[in-house]
Amino acid sequence: MIPDAVLNRTHNCGQLRESDIGAEVRLCGWVRSYRDHGGVIFVDLRDRYGITQVVFDTPEEGDQAGQDSYELADSLRNEWVISIAGVVRHRGEDRINPKLDTGQIEVVSTELTVLNQSDSVPFEPDSFTSVAEETRLKYRYIDLRRPEMTRAMTLRHEITSAMRSVLDGEGFVEIETPFLTRSTPEGARDFLVPSRMNQADFYALPQSPQLFKQILMVGGLDRYYQVVRCFRDEDLRADRQPEFTQLDLEMSFVTQRDVMNVTNSVLRKVCQVAGKDFPEEVPVITHDEAMDKYGIDRPDIRFEMFLHDVSGIAGATDFKVFTAAIESGGIVKTLCVPGGAKFTRKEIDVYTAFVADYGAKGLAWSKLEDGAFAGGVAKFLSPEVQQQLRDATGANDGDILFFAAAGADDVNRVLAPLRVRVAEDLGLCDSETCAWCWITEFPLVSYNEQEKRWDSLHHPFTMPAVEDIEQLMSDPGAAKSLAYDIVCNGTEMGGGSIRIHDRHIQEKVFEILGIGPQEATEKFGFLLDALRFGAPPHGGLALGLDRIVMEMVSAPSLRDVIAFPKTQRGTCPLTGAPGEVDDKQLAELDLKIIVPHKN
RNA sequence: GGGACCGUAGCUCAAUUUGGUUAGAGCACCGGACUGUCGAUCCGGAGGUUGCGGGUUCGAAUCCCGUCGGUCUCGCCA
C-alpha cells in the first residue's frame, strides 16, 4: 500500500526554478539516469514536463532515515518510478546545466519511495539513439516517454483544443455521427463489420461523415463540426493510415469564401499554438494554374521553379521524342532549375532513375552555359529554338532544363515530383516554413479511361459551378465545381466544397457519373430524400488533423503523431491486431473462414 | 499487384564488397571503485538459432532460391 502522501506532488519535473530555492517539494517521476559517485548520487527524474536533478548526499553520522534513503537510492535503476521529498537548492555557478530548463537548481532528497521497479527496458526513451520503428511500436508506452513523442502528443491536443475553441467561438456545434453505418459505392475500400442481428449484412466504418453532416444541415443545425475518426481500407504510406482523424465541418447559407475564411481562422490559431507563421492572406491558386505551373493540384510553393509548357517550341524541333509526343496529342513541358548546370552526369542519372518510378521512359535535359545550350538534347535545339526556350522559361546561364514529353497527365505526373525532388536537393525546402495555399475551381469530373466513365474529382455531392444544367450535361469535362483544397508545403491538408442542395441537380450529377436512379436510391436514397424536404444551401470542409500535426512538428511519418498507429501492413505490434477470432464468434455472425490462416 | 532498401547481443551498429581462426563495439544489464556528476567515468563480467527454411561449398553472417517481417514507393487512396 502506497501512502497517499508520497503521491501528493507539489511540482512537476519541469517546473522548479531559482525562485523556488529553499522550498520543500515532492516530485514523482521516472529515473532517466543515475550517477553514483560513491559519496553522492545524482538521479535525473523525468516526467512529461521535464527533467529535474535529484541529489542524495552522504548521510550524517547517526541519521538512520538518511542512511536508508541513500542505500535505496544506490539501488535505483533506469525507468523505476519514484517519489522524492526534498529541498530545492542552487547548484552553484559552475554546476549549472544549460541543457535543462531546471538546470540552475537541484532537489536534495530527504526521503525516497520506490513506487514501482522496472525491468531493463528494451530501449532508452531518450533522444540520442534511433530505434527501429517496429520496436518503438511494440513498446509504445516506453516510446511515448521520449520528449519528441510527448511533444507531438501534447501539441496534437493543443491543436485540437485550438480548433474547438475557434469553432465554438464561431457558433459551431460538435455533433457525433455513427461509426457503424452503411457501405457506399464510390471512393476508398470500406472496412466492413458483420451484423450479428442481421444475417449476411454488414456495417461499414465511415470513410468520412460526409452524408451525415449534410443531413445535419437539412436538420437545421446550421454550423457543425466534429473531430472524428475516418476509416479507409487502402494501402498505407508514410502519410496514410487506415484510421485517421479529421476536423470535419459543415455550414449552412454560406459561400465558398465563407468556408475558406473560417478555415483560415482555424489554421491561423493552430499555427499560433504550434509556433508557426500563418499568412495574412492565403494565396488562392486555381486548379488550372496549379496544374500548369506546378503540374500538381497540391503545389509546394515554398519555392518557385515553375514548369513551362513549351509544346509549340518543341514541336518544331527535329527531336523525335518531342515531335512524336506532340503528334499524338501530347505536350512537352520543361522544368527550369536555376543553377542546375552544375549537376554532374551522375546526378542527372539519379534524376532519370527517379522519374522512371513515375513511368517516364527517359529524361531529356540541356544545360545553359556561356549563352548557349550544351549537353543532353542541345544538338536538337537550333539557335532559334534556343532563344525561344530562353524567352519562354526565363532561363539564364548556369541553369538546366529538364523536359518531359507525353500526354499531359503523364508529363505532370513526372515533372511535379521531379520539381520537388530537385528543390529538396538544392536545399529549398525549409522544414520550418509553412507555405499555405488554397486550390480552387477544380473540374467537377474527370474521365476514367479504364472504366470508360466520368468520376467525381471531389465527391458526387459537389456543386457544379455552372449556370446552365444543359451545358453541364452536354460537356461534363468542361464543368468546374465549387470545391477547394487547402495545401501546405505540397501536402493536401484538407478539402471541401459547396454541396448540391437541389435534388434535381443531384440526380443530374448522378446521371453523369453513371449512377442510375435505382442505385442512387439504394445507396444514397436517404440523402436524396433529405434534399426534398427543405435542404438549405450548405458547404463545408474537412482538415486532416494527423497531417497538420505532422507538418507542425516536421515529423517524417504520420506514425510519429499518432499514439498507437499501424505498420505498413496494417498491423499493431503492441496489441497484435488484427488477429484470429474464436469459432464461436464466427458462428454467431454466421461467418465461415474458407481460406486457411497464413500461420 | 509491381519496384527498391533493410533484418547480426535487450537496443544501435561493425564484420557482407573479396566466403576462411573463437562474429566485434557502444549503450543497457550484473559485480566492483569513486563526494559534484549531468548521455558521468574507471575496472571486471555475462549476453548470439547472424529473422526463418532450403541450396552451393572442404568451409556461409557473407553467394543463390524461397519465405516471414519492417521501411520507402508506383498503382490504389471520391
Describe this structure in words.
This protein is 30% helix and 24% strand. With 599 residues, it is an alpha+beta fold. It folds into three domains: 4-116, Nucleic acid-binding proteins (OB fold (Dihydrolipoamide Acetyltransferase, E2P), Beta Barrel), CATH 2.40.50.140; 150-285 and 437-562, BirA Bifunctional Protein, domain 2, CATH 3.30.930; 303-429, 2-Layer Sandwich (Gyrase A, domain 2). It has an eight-stranded mixed β-sheet, sandwiched between helices. Strand 14 (364-369) and strand 15 (372-374) form a beta hairpin. Helix 10 packs across helix 12 (408-425). The protein is globular, with a radius of gyration of 30 Å. The model has no long low-confidence stretch (mean pLDDT 93). The structure holds one RNA strand of 78 nucleotides.
CATH class of the largest domain: Alpha Beta
Distance between the termini: 44 Å
Multimer state: single chain
- What would you say the CATH architecture of the largest domain is? 2-Layer Sandwich
Number of strands: 22
* Overall geometry: globular
Spatial strand arrangement across the major sheet: 6-9-10-22-21-20-17-11
CATH superfamily of the largest domain: Bira Bifunctional Protein, Domain 2
Largest sheet: 8 strands, mixed
Secondary structure class reads alpha+beta
Number of domains: 3
**CATH fold group of the largest domain:** BirA Bifunctional Protein, domain 2
Q: What is the mean predicted local confidence, pLDDT?
A: 93
Low-confidence stretches: none
What proportion strand? 15-25%
The helical percent reads 25-40%
